[in-house]
Task: structure prediction
Amino acid sequence: MANSRIAGETGVSRATVVEWRKRFLNEGPDALTQIKPSRGRKPQLGVEWVEEIVKATLNSLPPGTTHWSCRSRYFVSFGLNYG
Result:
C-alpha cells in the first residue's frame, strides 16, 4: 500500500508514514506502540503539582462550588494560569 494512501486514511503526513515504516523495519511492531521520550509536548507542570491537584480534586471543592467543573476555577484555585 502506498505511503500517501496510508497517510490519507490515518490523517497523518506522508513523512510520518515513512518514519513508521522505518521504525517497523528496524525495531519491529512493538516500536510503533512506544512514544520516544523526545517526542510530543513537554509537560508544563511538574509531578508534584499534578499529584497535589489530583489529591485536591478528589478530596475537596473549590470555594463556593459544589463540584469541580469549571477549568478556570480549577487552575485559578491553584494559582495557575491557563491559556
Remarks:
- The CA atoms of residues 53 and 78 lie 8 Å apart.
- The chain has a mean pLDDT of 81.
- The chain is about 50% helix and 0% strand.
- The two ends are 41 Å apart (CA to CA).
